[in-house]
Amino acid sequence: MKNLKKVLAMVLASVMVLSMAACGAKEEAAEAPAEEEAKEEAPAEEEKEWGPIFADLVENGVLKVGIIGNDPTFCFHTVKDGKDVLTGFEVQGMYEMAKRLTDYLGREVTVEFYESDFTGCMSALEAGQVYFVTRLSPTDERKETWLFTDVYHKSNECYVARKDNADNEKFTGTLEGVTVCGQMGSIDITMTKHLYPDAEIQELGLVSDLLLSVKNGKSDLACMNAVSAAMSVAANDDLVVVDSLTWEPTDEFDKGCGLCMAYGNEDFAEWASDFFADIKAEGLWDQMQSDAAAELDEKALESFIAK
């Protein structure tokens, strides 16, 4: 497991560099504010009418986050001091957000995670149980109903197959006669349907479900982001990424992922977009991704060691 962990950390480091280069070329690093500038302060409550998220934060001080779980290195479980804990770079990003909201609002803000799959998180958002859901692509269709922050992560799209099936002659063209599985509600599924209209699509719950489907021969390919794909093949000797199907999505098909919330929270969406821009410019976001890779252990990798 130690050797596997080292391999995964190396692979993930390479994947993250490539992913950041793909989207980083489109962004300019924000200039650090002068030290003498006064720190931005939240407008006085009596001077501004808060949107629902900020209003509730001011009153209750709990950042209610819907997070699509079990997807290292974004969000995963590990053991610390003998206890099961939720971690990952998205998780650490939310703790940092709460810290800066504490300074911004002048009151303590803590984090409360609602961890589920896509369907569960969206149901919680619709019911008002969470403020927003992480890691969703701001498609035109979704933006008709939901408000999004700026994109905070984007990576290549990959297709994973059994190693003994990697040279399948059907893995070309429109993928006619090929069964492709992906996570329900994911942009991976949306893009696969667009790029490979003749493929048979299976929508499943978690990454672990995708890997088992491929290993058991129920699916020929599993579509997922480059980070998950790298971990999947590193943890399973009988799986491989089909290089000929790997591609760097353009904004037309995959705008990346942001936070998804209800309209009426434009003030919070703007603040959160600035927050992600700040931690990227500071190098903190990259560091969180490296730290998440370093935290991988046997428990965290269970979902990627399909049997």
What does it look like?
The chain is α/β, with parallel strands linked by helices and 307 residues long. Helices cover 38% and strands 19% of the residues. The chain is built from 10 helices and 12 strands. It has a 5-stranded mixed beta sheet. A 5-stranded mixed beta sheet has the order 9-8-10-7-11, sandwiched between helices. Helix 1 runs antiparallel to helix 10. The longest helix is centred in the first third of the chain and has 23 residues, at 2-24. The protein starts with a helix and ends in a 13-residue tail after the last helix. 39% of the residues are buried. The model is unreliable at 17-39 (pLDDT under 50).
Sheet with most strands? 5 strands, mixed
Report the portion of residues in β strands: 15-25%
Tally the beta strands.
Answer: 12
Classify the secondary structure makeup into a structural class: alpha/beta
**What is the overall pLDDT average?**
83
C-alpha Rg (nearest Å): 20 Å
* Number of discrete helical segments: 10
> Element order, helices and strands?
HHEEEHEHEHEEEHEHEHEEHH
Poorly predicted tracts of residues = 17-39
Brief summary of the model shown:
The protein is α/β, with parallel strands linked by helices. It contains ten helices and twelve strands.
Q: Which helices and strands occur, and which strands form pairs?
A:
Blueprint lengths: L1 H23 L27 H9 L1 E7 L7 E5 L2 E5 L1 H17 L4 E7 L1 H9 L5 E5 L3 H4 L3 E2 L8 E6 L16 E5 L3 H9 L4 E5 L2 H9 L5 E5 H10 L3 E3 L16 E4 L4 H16 L2 H11 L13
Parallel strand pairs: 1-4, 1-5, 8-9, 8-10
Antiparallel strand pairs: 2-3, 5-12, 6-12, 7-10, 7-11
Helix pairs in contact: 1-8, 1-10, 3-10
